[in-house]
């Protein structure tokens, strides 16, 4: 995706924000809202497709869902959604989709700050027998996520780094 299009799309908002990690920030990277535009979503997914390595993709609800669905439609690769918490209703399943023991899975995320969300996703998939050593995000906020994931055997690639966009 053209770096100018990141800015034009309104993905980066300025103000006072509290991030999922609890950190305070003067800017917010809003991939979720940008992905409600089919052209932007398609462009982002094209970038993600180019970085996938394996035959399955996975992501944590909510931010990764439009991305993994878009990549799945473009590549015909099956996807897996990881729910954020335990469920007390319906099937009570935390994993939506099939995890085959020994299968290699690309993780996809919208924005990586600390890397904790991606690491939780990887742990859940690993506990179910998957091999998870590669992740892709749209924007790396360059706030320790790359390092945390690397320490846990996961190589993080990004479509863009925040230092390139600000």
Spell out the key features of this protein.
single chain; 166 residues; two-stranded antiparallel sheet; 30% strand
Describe this structure in words.
With 166 residues, the chain is an alpha/beta fold. Helices cover 35% and strands 30% of the residues. The chain contains seven helices and eight strands; from the N terminus they run H-E-E-H-H-E-H-E-E-E-H-E-H-E-H. The strands form two sheets. Strands 5-4-3-6-7-8 form a six-stranded mixed β-sheet, sandwiched between helices. Strands 1-2 form a two-stranded antiparallel ribbon. Strand 7 (131-140), helix 6 (145-151) and strand 8 (155-161) form a beta-alpha-beta unit. Helix 3 (38-51) packs across helix 4 (65-75). The longest helix has 14 residues, at 38-51. It is globular and about 45 Å long. The mean pLDDT is 91.
Q: What is the alpha-carbon Rg in Å?
A: 15 Å
Order of helices and strands: HEEHHEHEEEHEHEH
Mean pLDDT: 91
Helix content: 25-40%
Output the structural class: alpha/beta
Write the layout of secondary structure elements.
Blueprint: H1 3-8, E1 12-18, E2 24-29, H2 31-34, H3 38-51, E3 56-60, H4 65-75, E4 79-82, E5 95-96, E6 104-112, H5 116-127, E7 131-140, H6 145-151, E8 155-161, H7 162-165
Parallel strand pairs: 3-4, 3-6, 6-7, 7-8
Antiparallel strand pairs: 1-2, 4-5
